[in-house]
Amino acid sequence: MTFHPATGRRAALALGLALAAGTAAFPAVAQQAYPSKPIRLIVPFPPGGGTDMIARTVSQKLADTLKWTIVVDNRAGAGGNLGVDQAAKAAPDGYTLVLGQTSNLAINPTLYPKLPYDPLKDLVPVALVSSSPIVIAVGVNSPYKTFADVVADAKKRPKTITMGYSGNGTVAHLASELAQKTAGIDLQHIPYKGAAQAMTDLVSGQIDLYMSSVPTLLGQVRNQKLRALAVTSAKRSGELPDTPTLAESGYKGFDAVTWFGILAPAGTPPAIVKTLNTEINNALRDPAVAAKLKSDGGDVIGGTSEQFATLLKNEIPRWGKIVKDSGATID
Protein backbone atom coordinates (compact mmCIF):
# COMPACT_ATOMS: atom_id res chain seq x y z
CA MET A 1 0.00 0.00 0.00
CA THR A 2 1.33 3.45 -0.97
CA PHE A 3 1.11 6.20 1.69
CA HIS A 4 0.26 9.70 0.39
CA PRO A 5 1.32 12.53 2.76
CA ALA A 6 -1.53 14.82 1.72
CA THR A 7 -4.10 12.10 2.34
CA GLY A 8 -2.59 11.31 5.75
CA ARG A 9 -2.67 14.96 6.76
CA ARG A 10 -6.32 15.24 5.77
CA ALA A 11 -7.20 12.10 7.75
CA ALA A 12 -5.37 13.37 10.83
CA LEU A 13 -7.09 16.72 10.56
CA ALA A 14 -10.50 15.05 10.25
CA LEU A 15 -9.79 12.89 13.29
CA GLY A 16 -8.70 15.93 15.31
CA LEU A 17 -11.84 17.84 14.39
CA ALA A 18 -14.01 14.85 15.33
CA LEU A 19 -12.37 14.54 18.74
CA ALA A 20 -12.70 18.28 19.35
CA ALA A 21 -16.36 18.15 18.39
CA GLY A 22 -16.91 15.24 20.76
CA THR A 23 -15.26 17.07 23.64
CA ALA A 24 -17.35 20.18 22.96
CA ALA A 25 -20.53 18.15 22.80
CA PHE A 26 -19.88 16.49 26.16
CA PRO A 27 -17.97 18.99 28.34
CA ALA A 28 -19.73 17.78 31.49
CA VAL A 29 -18.04 14.39 31.27
CA ALA A 30 -14.65 15.91 32.05
CA GLN A 31 -15.67 18.99 34.03
CA GLN A 32 -18.80 17.96 35.93
CA ALA A 33 -18.85 19.69 39.30
CA TYR A 34 -19.14 17.69 42.52
CA PRO A 35 -21.72 16.90 43.69
CA SER A 36 -23.94 16.45 40.65
CA LYS A 37 -26.41 14.07 42.30
CA PRO A 38 -27.68 13.23 45.82
CA ILE A 39 -25.16 12.14 48.45
CA ARG A 40 -26.06 9.19 50.66
CA LEU A 41 -25.01 9.59 54.30
CA ILE A 42 -25.26 6.26 56.10
CA VAL A 43 -26.09 6.37 59.81
CA PRO A 44 -25.28 2.91 61.22
CA PHE A 45 -27.93 3.19 63.95
CA PRO A 46 -31.73 3.62 64.02
CA PRO A 47 -33.46 7.03 63.74
CA GLY A 48 -33.81 9.11 66.89
CA GLY A 49 -30.46 8.39 68.52
CA GLY A 50 -27.48 10.69 69.00
CA THR A 51 -25.71 9.64 65.81
CA ASP A 52 -28.85 10.24 63.77
CA MET A 53 -29.39 13.71 65.26
CA ILE A 54 -25.80 14.76 64.48
CA ALA A 55 -26.07 13.49 60.91
CA ARG A 56 -29.29 15.36 60.27
CA THR A 57 -28.03 18.60 61.80
CA VAL A 58 -24.90 18.70 59.64
CA SER A 59 -26.56 17.46 56.45
CA GLN A 60 -29.37 20.00 56.78
CA LYS A 61 -26.87 22.85 57.05
CA LEU A 62 -25.02 21.63 53.95
CA ALA A 63 -28.32 21.40 52.10
CA ASP A 64 -29.43 24.88 53.17
CA THR A 65 -26.12 26.57 52.38
CA LEU A 66 -24.91 24.70 49.30
CA LYS A 67 -28.19 23.33 47.96
CA TRP A 68 -26.72 19.83 48.12
CA THR A 69 -29.14 16.93 48.38
CA ILE A 70 -28.05 14.65 51.22
CA VAL A 71 -30.13 11.59 52.01
CA VAL A 72 -29.66 10.25 55.55
CA ASP A 73 -29.90 6.46 55.35
CA ASN A 74 -30.29 4.61 58.67
CA ARG A 75 -28.71 1.16 58.41
CA ALA A 76 -28.70 -0.34 61.89
CA GLY A 77 -27.32 -3.70 62.94
CA ALA A 78 -24.36 -5.54 64.46
CA GLY A 79 -23.26 -2.69 66.72
CA GLY A 80 -23.01 -0.30 63.78
CA ASN A 81 -20.91 -2.72 61.72
CA LEU A 82 -23.59 -3.27 59.08
CA GLY A 83 -23.83 0.37 58.04
CA VAL A 84 -20.09 1.00 58.14
CA ASP A 85 -19.47 -2.11 56.05
CA GLN A 86 -21.93 -0.91 53.41
CA ALA A 87 -20.05 2.37 53.17
CA ALA A 88 -16.67 0.62 53.05
CA LYS A 89 -17.84 -1.48 50.09
CA ALA A 90 -19.56 1.37 48.21
CA ALA A 91 -18.18 2.99 45.07
CA PRO A 92 -15.43 5.48 46.00
CA ASP A 93 -17.01 8.37 44.11
CA GLY A 94 -18.00 10.71 46.95
CA TYR A 95 -21.69 9.81 46.80
CA THR A 96 -21.70 7.41 49.75
CA LEU A 97 -20.51 8.58 53.17
CA VAL A 98 -20.92 7.23 56.69
CA LEU A 99 -21.11 8.88 60.09
CA GLY A 100 -18.90 6.55 62.10
CA GLN A 101 -18.03 6.74 65.76
CA THR A 102 -15.69 5.38 68.40
CA SER A 103 -17.53 2.07 68.68
CA ASN A 104 -17.61 0.86 65.10
CA LEU A 105 -14.25 2.39 64.14
CA ALA A 106 -11.99 2.03 67.20
CA ILE A 107 -13.56 -0.58 69.48
CA ASN A 108 -14.99 -3.18 67.14
CA PRO A 109 -11.68 -4.08 65.45
CA THR A 110 -10.71 -5.72 68.75
CA LEU A 111 -14.14 -6.69 70.04
CA TYR A 112 -15.26 -8.57 66.92
CA PRO A 113 -13.02 -11.48 65.84
CA LYS A 114 -14.17 -11.23 62.21
CA LEU A 115 -14.94 -7.60 61.41
CA PRO A 116 -16.00 -7.35 57.73
CA TYR A 117 -14.04 -4.12 57.17
CA ASP A 118 -10.74 -2.55 58.22
CA PRO A 119 -11.28 1.07 59.34
CA LEU A 120 -7.73 2.03 58.40
CA LYS A 121 -7.67 0.36 54.98
CA ASP A 122 -11.25 0.42 53.73
CA LEU A 123 -12.26 3.97 54.69
CA VAL A 124 -10.80 7.44 54.35
CA PRO A 125 -11.50 9.94 57.17
CA VAL A 126 -13.19 13.10 55.92
CA ALA A 127 -13.86 15.20 59.02
CA LEU A 128 -14.49 14.83 62.73
CA VAL A 129 -17.79 16.35 63.80
CA SER A 130 -18.27 16.16 67.56
CA SER A 131 -17.68 14.20 70.76
CA SER A 132 -19.78 13.38 73.79
CA PRO A 133 -19.52 11.55 77.11
CA ILE A 134 -21.71 8.60 78.00
CA VAL A 135 -24.46 9.09 80.57
CA ILE A 136 -25.69 6.56 83.13
CA ALA A 137 -29.41 7.22 83.54
CA VAL A 138 -32.42 5.85 85.40
CA GLY A 139 -36.14 6.55 85.27
CA VAL A 140 -37.36 9.37 87.50
CA ASN A 141 -39.16 6.86 89.72
CA SER A 142 -36.03 4.79 90.27
CA PRO A 143 -34.83 4.39 93.86
CA TYR A 144 -31.26 5.14 92.67
CA LYS A 145 -30.25 8.76 93.22
CA THR A 146 -26.50 8.31 92.71
CA PHE A 147 -24.14 5.82 91.12
CA ALA A 148 -23.07 4.88 94.64
CA ASP A 149 -26.64 3.69 95.26
CA VAL A 150 -26.36 1.39 92.24
CA VAL A 151 -23.03 -0.01 93.41
CA ALA A 152 -24.32 -0.68 96.93
CA ASP A 153 -27.41 -2.51 95.67
CA ALA A 154 -25.49 -4.42 93.00
CA LYS A 155 -23.07 -5.79 95.58
CA LYS A 156 -26.04 -7.14 97.53
CA ARG A 157 -27.78 -8.55 94.43
CA PRO A 158 -25.23 -9.53 91.76
CA LYS A 159 -26.51 -10.11 88.25
CA THR A 160 -30.02 -8.86 89.04
CA ILE A 161 -29.87 -5.12 88.27
CA THR A 162 -30.41 -4.62 84.53
CA MET A 163 -28.20 -2.32 82.45
CA GLY A 164 -29.31 -1.46 78.93
CA TYR A 165 -27.24 0.00 76.10
CA SER A 166 -27.68 0.40 72.37
CA GLY A 167 -25.88 -2.42 70.63
CA ASN A 168 -22.96 -4.68 71.42
CA GLY A 169 -19.59 -3.09 70.84
CA THR A 170 -20.73 0.50 71.36
CA VAL A 171 -18.85 2.88 73.64
CA ALA A 172 -21.79 2.59 76.05
CA HIS A 173 -21.39 -1.20 76.13
CA LEU A 174 -17.65 -0.99 76.75
CA ALA A 175 -17.96 1.88 79.24
CA SER A 176 -20.53 -0.22 81.09
CA GLU A 177 -18.14 -3.17 81.25
CA LEU A 178 -15.31 -0.91 82.41
CA ALA A 179 -17.48 0.80 85.04
CA GLN A 180 -18.61 -2.54 86.44
CA LYS A 181 -15.07 -3.85 86.62
CA THR A 182 -13.85 -0.64 88.25
CA ALA A 183 -16.67 -0.66 90.82
CA GLY A 184 -16.49 -4.40 91.45
CA ILE A 185 -20.09 -5.13 90.50
CA ASP A 186 -21.87 -7.44 88.05
CA LEU A 187 -24.98 -6.21 86.22
CA GLN A 188 -27.34 -8.00 83.86
CA HIS A 189 -26.76 -6.79 80.29
CA ILE A 190 -29.71 -5.85 78.07
CA PRO A 191 -28.47 -4.86 74.58
CA TYR A 192 -30.94 -2.93 72.39
CA LYS A 193 -30.97 -2.30 68.66
CA GLY A 194 -31.56 1.40 69.26
CA ALA A 195 -32.22 4.03 71.90
CA ALA A 196 -35.96 4.58 71.33
CA GLN A 197 -37.21 1.25 72.73
CA ALA A 198 -34.61 1.32 75.51
CA MET A 199 -35.74 4.71 76.78
CA THR A 200 -39.36 3.56 76.72
CA ASP A 201 -38.41 0.55 78.84
CA LEU A 202 -36.31 2.70 81.17
CA VAL A 203 -39.09 5.23 81.78
CA SER A 204 -41.60 2.43 82.42
CA GLY A 205 -39.25 0.57 84.76
CA GLN A 206 -38.71 -2.46 82.52
CA ILE A 207 -34.96 -1.98 82.92
CA ASP A 208 -33.07 -0.38 85.82
CA LEU A 209 -30.25 1.52 84.09
CA TYR A 210 -29.35 2.71 80.63
CA MET A 211 -26.08 4.04 79.21
CA SER A 212 -25.91 6.17 76.08
CA SER A 213 -24.46 9.40 74.74
CA VAL A 214 -25.51 12.81 76.04
CA PRO A 215 -27.23 13.73 72.73
CA THR A 216 -29.39 10.60 72.96
CA LEU A 217 -30.56 11.07 76.55
CA LEU A 218 -30.44 14.82 77.12
CA GLY A 219 -33.98 15.57 75.95
CA GLN A 220 -35.52 12.97 78.27
CA VAL A 221 -33.42 14.23 81.19
CA ARG A 222 -34.52 17.80 80.54
CA ASN A 223 -38.14 16.65 80.30
CA GLN A 224 -37.67 14.99 83.70
CA LYS A 225 -38.51 11.54 82.41
CA LEU A 226 -35.01 10.31 83.17
CA ARG A 227 -32.45 11.10 85.87
CA ALA A 228 -28.74 11.26 85.04
CA LEU A 229 -26.55 9.63 87.69
CA ALA A 230 -23.08 10.14 86.20
CA VAL A 231 -21.12 10.88 83.02
CA THR A 232 -18.10 8.93 81.86
CA SER A 233 -15.88 11.82 80.71
CA ALA A 234 -12.98 13.31 82.66
CA LYS A 235 -14.93 16.53 83.14
CA ARG A 236 -18.62 17.30 83.52
CA SER A 237 -20.84 17.86 80.51
CA GLY A 238 -21.70 21.51 79.87
CA GLU A 239 -25.31 20.49 79.27
CA LEU A 240 -25.50 18.40 82.47
CA PRO A 241 -23.49 20.57 84.88
CA ASP A 242 -25.10 19.04 87.98
CA THR A 243 -24.27 15.47 86.98
CA PRO A 244 -20.97 14.23 88.48
CA THR A 245 -18.35 12.28 86.56
CA LEU A 246 -17.50 8.72 87.50
CA ALA A 247 -14.09 10.04 88.49
CA GLU A 248 -15.79 12.37 90.96
CA SER A 249 -17.88 9.44 92.15
CA GLY A 250 -14.77 7.72 93.43
CA TYR A 251 -13.29 6.11 90.30
CA LYS A 252 -10.27 8.27 89.53
CA GLY A 253 -8.98 8.37 85.99
CA PHE A 254 -12.21 7.05 84.45
CA ASP A 255 -12.59 8.65 81.01
CA ALA A 256 -14.60 7.26 78.10
CA VAL A 257 -16.18 9.43 75.41
CA THR A 258 -17.59 8.77 71.99
CA TRP A 259 -16.58 10.84 68.99
CA PHE A 260 -18.38 11.11 65.67
CA GLY A 261 -16.85 11.63 62.23
CA ILE A 262 -17.72 11.38 58.55
CA LEU A 263 -15.80 8.97 56.34
CA ALA A 264 -15.84 7.86 52.71
CA PRO A 265 -14.83 4.60 51.00
CA ALA A 266 -11.08 4.18 50.47
CA GLY A 267 -10.08 5.37 47.03
CA THR A 268 -12.38 8.39 47.05
CA PRO A 269 -10.57 11.13 45.07
CA PRO A 270 -8.57 13.47 47.34
CA ALA A 271 -10.19 16.52 45.72
CA ILE A 272 -13.64 15.28 46.75
CA VAL A 273 -12.43 14.51 50.28
CA LYS A 274 -11.01 18.02 50.50
CA THR A 275 -14.25 19.57 49.24
CA LEU A 276 -16.29 17.62 51.78
CA ASN A 277 -13.88 18.46 54.60
CA THR A 278 -13.99 22.17 53.78
CA GLU A 279 -17.78 22.32 53.62
CA ILE A 280 -18.31 20.21 56.76
CA ASN A 281 -15.95 22.49 58.69
CA ASN A 282 -17.80 25.52 57.35
CA ALA A 283 -21.05 23.99 58.58
CA LEU A 284 -19.59 23.29 62.03
CA ARG A 285 -18.44 26.92 62.31
CA ASP A 286 -21.98 28.13 61.81
CA PRO A 287 -23.22 29.44 65.19
CA ALA A 288 -26.62 27.79 64.81
CA VAL A 289 -25.11 24.37 64.05
CA ALA A 290 -22.61 24.66 66.91
CA ALA A 291 -25.41 25.71 69.28
CA LYS A 292 -27.59 22.80 68.13
CA LEU A 293 -24.83 20.23 68.66
CA LYS A 294 -23.99 21.77 72.04
CA SER A 295 -27.62 21.87 73.14
CA ASP A 296 -27.82 18.17 72.29
CA GLY A 297 -24.81 17.54 74.53
CA GLY A 298 -22.01 17.38 71.97
CA ASP A 299 -18.74 19.30 71.70
CA VAL A 300 -17.87 20.48 68.17
CA ILE A 301 -14.49 19.24 66.87
CA GLY A 302 -13.91 19.75 63.13
CA GLY A 303 -10.36 19.83 61.76
CA THR A 304 -8.53 18.28 58.82
CA SER A 305 -8.87 14.85 57.29
CA GLU A 306 -5.30 14.13 58.39
CA GLN A 307 -6.10 14.98 62.01
CA PHE A 308 -9.03 12.58 61.93
CA ALA A 309 -6.80 9.88 60.46
CA THR A 310 -4.24 10.38 63.25
CA LEU A 311 -6.96 10.15 65.91
CA LEU A 312 -8.24 6.91 64.41
CA LYS A 313 -4.76 5.36 64.33
CA ASN A 314 -4.29 6.24 68.01
CA GLU A 315 -7.75 5.26 69.21
CA ILE A 316 -7.80 1.73 67.81
CA PRO A 317 -4.95 0.46 70.04
CA ARG A 318 -6.13 2.52 73.02
CA TRP A 319 -9.63 1.06 72.94
CA GLY A 320 -8.24 -2.35 72.04
CA LYS A 321 -6.42 -2.39 75.37
CA ILE A 322 -9.59 -1.28 77.20
CA VAL A 323 -11.54 -4.10 75.53
CA LYS A 324 -9.00 -6.69 76.65
CA ASP A 325 -8.58 -5.25 80.18
CA SER A 326 -12.33 -4.99 80.77
CA GLY A 327 -13.03 -8.53 79.60
CA ALA A 328 -15.82 -7.26 77.34
CA THR A 329 -17.42 -9.90 75.15
CA ILE A 330 -20.20 -10.07 72.57
CA ASP A 331 -23.26 -11.68 74.10
Keywords:
331 residues; ten-stranded mixed beta sheet; alpha/beta
Strand content: 15-25%
Series of H and E elements: HHEHEHEHHEHEHEHEHEEHHEH
Mean pLDDT: 89
From the alpha carbons, calculate the radius of gyration and give it in angstroms: 25 Å
In which range does the helix fraction lie?
40-55%
Question: What's the number of helices?
Answer: 13
Biggest sheet statistics: 10 strands, mixed
What's the quick description here?
The protein is of the alpha/beta class and 331 residues long. The chain is built from 13 helices and 10 strands.
Model description:
With 331 residues, this protein is α/β, with parallel strands linked by helices. It contains 13 helices and 10 strands. Helix 3 links the parallel strand 1 and strand 2. Helix 8 packs across helix 13. It is globular, with a radius of gyration of 25 Å. About 8% of the residues have low confidence.
SSE topology sketch:
Elements: H1 5-25, H2 27-31, E1 39-43, H3 50-66, E2 70-74, H4 81-88, E3 96-101, H5 102-111, H6 119-122, E4 123-139, H7 147-156, E5 162-166, H8 171-183, E6 188-192, H9 195-204, E7 209-213, H10 214-222, E8 226-231, E9 257-265, H11 270-285, H12 287-295, E10 299-300, H13 305-326
Parallel strand pairs: 1-2, 1-3, 5-6, 5-7
Antiparallel strand pairs: 3-9, 4-7, 4-8, 4-9, 4-10
Helix pairs in contact: 3-10, 3-11, 5-13, 8-13
